[in-house]
Amino acid sequence: MRGVVNYASAFAGNALSIIAPMTSTGTEAGNSSHAGGSVAPGAGDVSSRLRAGLIAAMRAAFPQLEGEPDPLVSPNKNPALGDFQCNAAMGLSKKLGKSPREVAAAIVASSRNAWLDGLIEPLTDGAIAGPGFINIRLATAGLAGQLEAFDTPALGVPAPVRAQRVVIDLMGVNLAKNMHVGHLRSPVIGDALARMLTRLGHSVVRQNHVGDWGLNIAMTTARVQQLVAKGELSLATLTLDDLDKAYAFSQRECQRDLAGLEAAKRWNMGPKAIAELEEQVHGATEAFAHARSTLLKLQAKDPATHAVWQRIYSVTMRACLDVCTLINVQLSDADTAGESSYADELAPMVEELQARGLAVQDAGALIVRLDNPPKDAWGELLFEPISEPCLIRKTDGGYLYATTDVAACRRRVQKLGAERAIYAVDARQALHLRQVFAIAHLAGYSQLAAAENGRASFEHAAFGAILGSDGRPFKTRTGDSVKLSDLLQETFDRAGQVVQARAAERGTPYSASELATIGRAVGIAAIKYSDLSTDRVKDVLFNVDAMLAFEGDTGPYLLYALVRLKRIREKAGAGEGGTVQNERAAFVLEHASEKALALTLLRYPQSLKSAADALEPHRLCQMLYELAKACAVFYDQCPVIDAPPTQRASRLRLCGLAERVLEDGLACLGIPTLQRM
Ligand code: ARG
Questions:
Q1: Which protein residues are within 6 Å of ligand 1, measured from CB?
Q2: Long-range contacts of residues 18-22, Cβ cutoff 8 Å, at least 24 apart
Q3: Domains, the chain, ordered by start
Q4: Of 132, 375, 475, 517, which sits with the fewest C-beta atoms within 10 Å of its C-beta?
């Protein structure tokens, strides 16, 4: 969509050791909807450079080709023939009226250029195989050179051409409710996205959109006040468990009316539904009426009521931030902007929307129709039409979840400077967020201060549910939901046991305090990795045994791969954080597993960028898993410490680089690492 910020942060000037022609190259993120623009390969980025070089060769061979030809490069199916293969000739042959082998020969003949020279063994007709595949072998020195360029503190991750301001919506708990397993994904995914984008040089603001306002909260407040008055509860010792009970009680008490509220939230049916809703509201029970009066008192900041609310707020927030600390999610009080913080902005905002004709009266309520979006300055629709109108003010004058979210969009762009606002929110809220984003665009709230920068983008990083290992909703045997803090502690304990069993086998068991630290790190790795390595929109199973396995695509496997790298270098004489002698020894990459490890390392910048652009952490997880596997094959096949001096030095440097990439990648996922396990 034009007019929307293009955050395909083109690589800054690249650190290639050659002067390469600037050319459009596409990226691994090519399948992300956000990729675009000309991108020059970053330092050590073999696949992008290969691609750029082959595109240049294809254009030189066939100047008549329009647009950017796709060289279709992939790892070679038969490593004996080469490291990569280019499969473009077959597809082009018809278009060009030549046989595939003729096309391949022409590409080969035009393949001397600044991208390819030095990177690959010069191509000859002998490289053409079968119907017209071109086998490509990296020059040994070429790969070493790429690795050399990659071995900088930034690990090949270029500074963005223009750093963006990104707001990430994560966590968003509701007051007075215990956290359960369903609360894990938003902070885990949101925090990983925040870390990845920060690592790429963007400026990230986290926003915890806490559900701390409205009738439900007023009901609970009223109930707590009642219990305190009866002497059954004390504000000083109030716990989240107390609040959870009070919440459930007040919900039951006002059930009849809640159904009406639910309908209001889902309402999309015009006057009849509104009338029904009104009826429900009029037929309020005593408890409901009491809750409403409590809400009015809250809105008016009545000191006694507000003090109780304040207490409910701080008890909930303490528990919420404690969980974040426990699982290594960065979130603080300063990142919290609850729904209550928007309360005073709603009336004027809605009046403005009405005055501008964007919100219209419908049987006493105010709605915004979204089925006929206007065009923007570029002649494109402002958003995809949505058939369901959005209710932003009820007939009784009350505002809704959506109203607050529209105000949040406005604040995020206009006050927090967001060019990109990302919502790590449950997939079930997709329609709600689409409506909210559409209203924000319609109202011009997404307009960036510098008009030429267009509009901010709002993106829903939707995720699926967390299910039990049986694939059903995660519950205890008695059907209750499990408290998140208990579940986390159990998982950490279990992780500790698994680690201790392994250590005992080696004859070096850990002390209790060591084990607590290790168990927590391994547990966090297990939980976060199982979440992040799954395609975000899919459901994930919370299967403790599977996520704690030390073999396979798991967090502990990656942590262990890192610990192993540290141990090798330690053994070779590098103290903790110290340097191995000859830190910058020349890379000698002769063995196939050394080459494979080097090539995997070089994918890091692209994987990170593609994961961040597409908001899909699993892309980074995949690359890190492949790195851990490449390390395992490498140790298996190549001695390090006992290798002859030149190889030893090169291999130690390779291990050092692998250690840094793995450490960096895990940090981007929010997974703490260990020295030992
Ligand atoms: N409190 C909301 C809920 O429990 C989640 C908030 C998500 N963020 C947002 N901006 N709506 O469903």
A1: 169, 172, 174, 209, 211, 405, 408, 423, 425
A2: 18/114, 18/117, 18/118, 19/114, 20/49, 20/52, 20/114, 20/115, 21/56, 21/113, 21/114, 21/115
A3: 44-150 (3.30.1360.70), 165-209+346-466 (3.40.50.620), 215-326 (no CATH), 484-668 (1.10.730.10)
A4: 375
